[in-house]
Design brief:
Largest sheet: none
CATH class of the largest domain: Mainly Alpha
Structural class: mainly alpha
Distance between the termini: 56 Å
Order of helices and strands: HHHHHHHHHHHHHH
Number of domains: 3
Strand content: under 5%
Shape: globular
CATH superfamily of the largest domain: Homeodomain-like
Radius of gyration: 21 Å
CATH topology of the largest domain: Arc Repressor Mutant, subunit A
Number of strands: 0
């Protein structure tokens, strides 16, 4: 029996955890046939976590195993092997995630939990259409159309933006397919009829949108958070911003 898509990706992440994040993501998308955003969006809906954050946690977990299992290997070498620019960056990340240092792990004073996901963790937990459709798409052993996943994610985004329930979005999309017109276009037109003053273009850049969603207060803070975690702005989430602020407060105390 072939493995479902979700668990296939979880295995791929663990097996290639020393790759840099961008290469790892490219490998994931090549492996299962989803485009560059689809799997990440499905992952977030199911887990309430971001793919970037999960990869960072798995990287930390395997680095922790090596700290305990290879006592002769210098901490700085382990840091470099797992993609950190130096030992200081490795220590900062570990403090942000687990409030301990690599030395604490090595000496057995702390441990890192193995928080690996598998698709069965989410089986039969959800009754709404969105969750069931995403679960079934990931459970499917065959390559699926990226259009179908993009439609599902598009309906999810439209539902969040305009406040319509997801089942209503799906009913509109089903009608659009029968009429042989673009489902997302019809969904958006229906929303525009109800919300005449709603506009998709609020003048904000993608970077500004991410900053607002994460609760970042200025462009300077955005740059500092990205520098702290050695990541791009689109990989940030509110958890990382809170962790950054906690570390800054401790340093200034």
């Amino acid at each position: 029996m072939k493995q479902n898509k979700f668990d296939l990706v979880m295995d791929y992440i663990d097996a290639n955890i020393q790759m840099n994040t961008e290469e790892l993501k490219k490998g994931i998308y090549s492996l299962i046939g989803f485009n560059s955003n689809s799997f990440g969006n499905c992952f977030s809906v199911l887990t309430n976590d971001t793919l970037f954050h999960y990869i960072s946690e798995r990287r930390m977990y395997f680095a922790g195993k090596e700290l305990q299992g290879n006592l002769e290997k210098p901490i700085c070498d382990i840091a470099l092997d797992y993609g950190y620019s130096d030992q200081s960056a490795f220590t900062r990340a570990m403090k942000a995630f687990y409030k301990c240092t690599p030395n604490d792990i090595r000496k057995g004073r702390s441990s890192i939990p193995n928080n690996r996901y598998c698709l069965n963790d989410f089986n039969n937990e959800y009754s709404d259409t969105r969750m069931n459709r995403i679960f079934k798409a990931l459970e499917n052993n065959e390559r699926i159309s990226s259009y179908n996943i993009e439609l599902l994610i598009g309906l999810e985004n439209a539902s969040k933006e305009y406040g319509f329930d997801f089942d209503t979005c799906c009913q509109i999309a089903d009608l659009a397919e029968k009429l042989e017109i673009s489902p997302l276009r019809l969904v958006n037109q229906c929303f525009e009829l109800v919300l005449e003053e709603e506009t998709c273009n609020d003048g904000l850049s993608q970077e500004e949108r991410v900053a607002i969603e994460c609760g970042i207060e200025s462009s300077e803070e955005l740059k500092e958070v990205c520098k702290y975690f050695d990541c791009k702005y689109y990989d940030l989430d509110s958890f990382m911003v809170r962790a950054y602020r906690e570390q800054i407060c401790k340093q200034n105390a």
